[in-house]
Amino acid sequence: MRSRGCAVWFAFVVASGCAATPDIHVAALPPGSGTFFTQVGLLASETGSVYQVDVEDGGTAKIGPSSCPWLSALDLRPDGTVLGVGGGVANAYLIDPLMPQSCVELGQLPEVMQAVAVRADGHVFTISDKPNHQTVYELDDALNVIASHPLSCPTCSIDGIDFAPDGTLYAINGQLSWTTLDPATGDVPTGTPTDLGFDFDIDAAGTVRALAGNQFKTYNLAGDKLTGVDIGSTLYVEGLVFR
């Protein structure tokens, strides 16, 4: 996703109850608001909340609980709204991280998904939640399937994906390998070692941002770590998005 800013937000959610009514308003994040959202939680079974992390000093602040199901991945749509997938259900949701109780079920997906990235044209790319048998899907903005391809690596376990400014789709494979992914073929080359964690965000300048362990980290597109800021506590990070 293409984004700017210098602060971080994150959330981990489990409870459902979202109405499947697309006309319910979910606010878009203002451009350049300097906000970074991530799905996190201390325990997978624990209802989580939305937090803010300051990437300069690592300070955290709780915003509030979310009404969305637990989501494993987030990304910004072109209109500035935040799309989420996961939670063990084959649905996509819109979430307003500034008002976490605002959650809208956007529609059904072909299967339960582990990762999501939205391209500049609004097309949604998802990775199925089936380690060693994953598929990449291309969907239109109404979540209709345009194409799908099994991933080329038989042991793939893609945890996060995002588009770079040049349109290249990058991926974390098994939390250990930084690589690219060709959504037109499903090809996943052998990557380079990384400690990025589960998910990441790429901004308009090509800087990669991630929360892993107790640090907010930045990397270049080659996978080299640039900076690390201690956030003061170890957080279980699932998905994240920066604006």
SSE topology sketch:
Layout: E1 7-11, E2 36-41, E3 49-54, E4 60-65, E5 73-76, E6 82-86, E7 89-95, E8 103-108, E9 113-118, E10 124-128, E11 135-139, E12 145-150, E13 158-163, E14 169-173, E15 177-180, E16 192-193, E17 201-202, E18 208-212, E19 215-219, E20 225-230, E21 236-242
Antiparallel strand pairs: 1-3, 2-21, 3-4, 5-6, 6-7, 7-8, 9-10, 10-11, 11-12, 13-14, 14-15, 15-16, 17-18, 18-19, 19-20
Q: Return residue spans where pLDDT drops below 50 for at least 5 consecutive residues.
A: 1-25, 39-47
Number of separate domains: 1
Binned strand content: 35-45%
Order of helical and strand elements: EEEEEEEEEEEEEEEEEEEEE
Q: From the alpha carbons, calculate the radius of gyration and give it in angstroms.
A: 16 Å
The tally of beta strands, per DSSP, is 21
Task: Give descriptors for this structure.
4-stranded antiparallel β-sheet, globular, about 240 residues, disordered N terminus, mainly beta, Neuraminidase, single chain, 21 strands
